[in-house]
TrEMBL record:
<dbReference type="GO" id="GO:0016887">
    <property type="term" value="F:ATP hydrolysis activity"/>
</dbReference>
<keyword id="KW-0479">Metal-binding</keyword>
<dbReference type="GO" id="GO:0140663">
    <property type="term" value="F:ATP-dependent FeS chaperone activity"/>
</dbReference>
<keyword id="KW-0378">Hydrolase</keyword>
<dbReference type="GO" id="GO:0016226">
    <property type="term" value="P:iron-sulfur cluster assembly"/>
</dbReference>
<comment type="subunit">
    <text>Homodimer.</text>
</comment>
<keyword id="KW-0547">Nucleotide-binding</keyword>
<protein>
    <recommendedName>
        <fullName>Iron-sulfur cluster carrier protein</fullName>
    </recommendedName>
</protein>
<comment type="function">
    <text>Binds and transfers iron-sulfur (Fe-S) clusters to target apoproteins. Can hydrolyze ATP.</text>
</comment>
<feature type="compositionally biased region" description="Basic residues">
    <location>
        <begin position="89"/>
        <end position="98"/>
    </location>
</feature>
<feature type="binding site">
    <location>
        <begin position="119"/>
        <end position="126"/>
    </location>
    <ligand>
        <name>ATP</name>
    </ligand>
</feature>
<comment type="similarity">
    <text>Belongs to the Mrp/NBP35 ATP-binding proteins family.</text>
</comment>
<dbReference type="InterPro" id="IPR027417">
    <property type="entry name" value="P-loop_NTPase"/>
</dbReference>
<dbReference type="Pfam" id="PF10609">
    <property type="entry name" value="ParA"/>
</dbReference>
<dbReference type="InterPro" id="IPR033756">
    <property type="entry name" value="YlxH/NBP35"/>
</dbReference>
<dbReference type="InterPro" id="IPR019591">
    <property type="entry name" value="Mrp/NBP35_ATP-bd"/>
</dbReference>
<keyword id="KW-0411">Iron-sulfur</keyword>
Length: 365
């Protein structure tokens, strides 16, 4: 018997939402519902901060779906994604912005550039970038971090530099921007160049031009690594940006569920298309340890990232747990790595894995 989507939706609507009033359908949690090879697959979109509350909801949803006529097996996954903003596509055939404007000193003192990317928004790419940057700086390296997410710059919040404006200094006939140093990292964000928190409405070429300027017209000085927190997505705009920046390697951040990993594959394909080596995959929100019972919960699924990294022939760089302190410290402007708590150890390991892989790749190239 074929199944009816209406009946499945009605079944899901019998489950109350643990955060908003009403049921999970009314609360807009259902991101997709699809019958794939005889298994009814549903994706529920949940806020990362409340993910734990949805753990029993996943099970309940799976159970009610399996009572629907025509459904023999159901699979429900939780997703922490939010739709990623598009930074405006380039029209086919448009020339790229020049990689480095004439006369600009460029990256002579920047040893390696690493792009940190994710196919979807909200998977924790900026949180990972900030913590890895601080962990690298703590290990004695000279580190810069450029927030290339022009429509949703989160770096100032993560580093506690909100409201600060970058100074421009004159060098000969041109002006260069002085990055803002925080937690041992030289940081640069478009938010430092715009007064107040006004929304940024630049599109396409303007966006790319602004990012190029932030990259080349900033007085980075001597850096061992410059990390670029890329805008989420794998569209033309991100591809163009990757070509512009031409990093020495790219790191893909993903959450464990299959949906995110499917997208992570698109990220790997994008970088490969423009010959940028993929250094590896970081799995964020991999496991949640219940503070009350100590039990470990794989809220967003388990095992997929490592398997996918293997299949894609890229390194599995490591995992960061889903932990309240990671979000709290990000909101407070002190990356958890800077606070030297038990959590900082995860980022020290991740940073080391990224450094080793980047050095190894650079030697091979
Ligand atoms: N491991 C984690 N544990 C707890 N909270 C996390 C973790 N990683 C990220 N978060 C939280 O998830 C939210 C999204 O993270 P973040 O802004 O880093 O994602 P993003 O992928 O950069 O998003 P976007 O680029 O779409 O803005 C933030 O509130 C952040 O504090």
């Amino acid at each position: 018997m074929s199944y009816s989507e209406n009946l499945a939706l009605r079944a899901l609507a019998t489950i109350s939402d643990p955060v908003k009033s009403g049921d999970i359908i009314a609360a807009g949690r259902l991101a997709s519902l699809e019958m794939i090879e005889g298994v009814l697959q549903a994706v529920l979109q949940v806020p990362p901060a409340d993910a734990e509350a949805f753990f029993p909801i996943r099970e309940a949803a799976q159970n009610v779906l399996e009572t629907v006529d025509g459904v023999t097996k159901a699979r429900v996954v939780l997703s922490a994604h939010k739709p990623g903003p598009q930074i405006g596509g380039r029209k086919k055939g448009n020339p790229h912005q020049p990689r480095r404007p004439e006369g600009v000193q460029g990256d002579a003192e920047v040893k390696r550039i690493i792009a940190i990317s994710s196919a979807k928004g909200g998977v924790g790419k900026s949180t990972m970038s900030a913590n890895i940057a601080v962990a690298m700086a703590r290990s004695g390296l000279k580190i810069g971090l450029l927030d290339a997410d022009i429509h949703g710059p989160s770096l100032p919040m993560l580093f506690g530099t909100r409201g600060q404006q970058a100074r421009a200094i004159s060098v000969g006939s041109r002006k260069i921007i002085v990055p803002i140093e925080a937690h041992g990292v030289k940081t640069m964000s478009v938010a430092y160049l715009t007064p107040d928190d006004s929304p940024i409405v630049w599109r396409g070429p303007l966006v790319q031009g602004a990012i190029s300027r932030m990259l080349w017209d900033v007085d980075w000085g001597e850096l061992d690594f410059l990390l670029i927190d890329m805008p989420p997505g794998t569209g033309d705009a991100q591809l163009g940006l990757a070509q512009d920046i031409k990093p020495g390697g790219a790191v893909i951040v993903s959450t464990p569920q299959d949906l995110a990993l499917l997208d992570a594959r698109k990220g790997v394909a994008m970088f490969r298309k423009v010959d940028i080596p993929v250094l590896g995959l970081i799995e964020n929100m991999a496991v949640f340890t219940c503070p009350d019972c100590g039990g470990q919960h794989h809220i967003f699924g388990t095992g997929g990232a490592m398997r996918d990294a293997e299949e894609l022939d890229i390194a599995y760089l490591g995992a960061a747990p889903l932990h309240m302190s990671i979000r709290e410290s990000g909101d407070a402007g002190t990356p958890v790595t800077a606070s030297q708590t038990e959590m900082s150890g995860f980022f020290d390991d991740l940073a080391k894995a990224v450094i080793d892989k980047a050095n190894e790749t650079a030697q091979r190239e």
